[in-house]
Amino acid sequence: MKHTILVVEDEYLIARDIKNILKEEGYKVIIDVDNVDYALEVLANEPISLVLLDINLKSDKNGIDLGRYLLGKDLIPFIYITSYTDKLTLDKASETRPYGYIVKPYKAIDVKTTVSIVLNNIKYKNLDIMRHVDTITDDNPFLIKKVISYIHEHVTERIEVQKLAEITPWKVHHFIKNFTRYIGKTPYNYVIDRKLEHAKALLVETQIPARQISYQLSFKSHSNFCRFFRIREQKTPDEYRKYHRGLKAK
């Protein structure tokens, strides 16, 4: 999957130069974003993999303000690309925990290698979680991985799509679109599938009644659970339990 990189830079010629450098590496690059408010709007509507962020911007808020916001939300990794090298600025920038710091004037190789290293680190950031989640692949964007991890950690709870969207910077309809694009099914159906996988394991490995399992997994009702189960497995939960226990006994 092609990564989308957002460049927040108020000098158009620099932004265009960065875009040309990164396009050579196969990235999709969004420029013409020169202030924090516009950057937040783009982040809410586009599946951004990485932000390249100037510190001095033509607005009341600067790049460090945006970096602080991204850190607080733990949303999207970012790299500062700036001419500031004084200790005060560096200390403030460091507090936002950027993934990199490129000093202007930069060389093309500096931009290429820093971006490549950061994206590679992001790819493996959740490696321990990914080893236990069979539907996550290295090609899924960082934010989708976070959502999937949340679903697996809270599979027994009532999980609303609105809540999942809040893990990302996207509005609900953009979240559903992006999730479906990368996973191949809607967030709602993915949650149902994970709950049913958990239910199947409980049916085969435990003596817990099917009705109690449906409540443990926070289905709206037992009949709702049975309806989804029959659609997916062509068997009722009790039929599934009897069939698979028969296989284990052989």
Automatic annotation (TrEMBL):
Which SMART domains does the record associate with it?
HTH_ARAC, REC
Q: Which residues are recorded as modified (4-aspartylphosphate)? A: D54
| Domain of life according to the entry | Bacteria
Q: Name one Pfam family in it.
A: HTH_18
User: Keyword GTP-binding, does the record have it?
Assistant: no
- What does the UniProt keyword field contain? DNA-binding, Phosphoprotein, Transcription, Transcription regulation
Matching entries from InterPro entries are given as:
CheY-like_superfamily (IPR011006), Homeodomain-like_sf (IPR009057), HTH_AraC (IPR018060), Sig_transdc_resp-reg_receiver (IPR001789)
Where is each HTH araC/xylS-type domain found? 145-243
Residue ranges of the Response regulatory domain? 4-119
| Any one GO molecular-function label of the UniProt entry | sequence-specific DNA binding
Under which name does UniProt file this protein? AraC-like DNA-binding protein
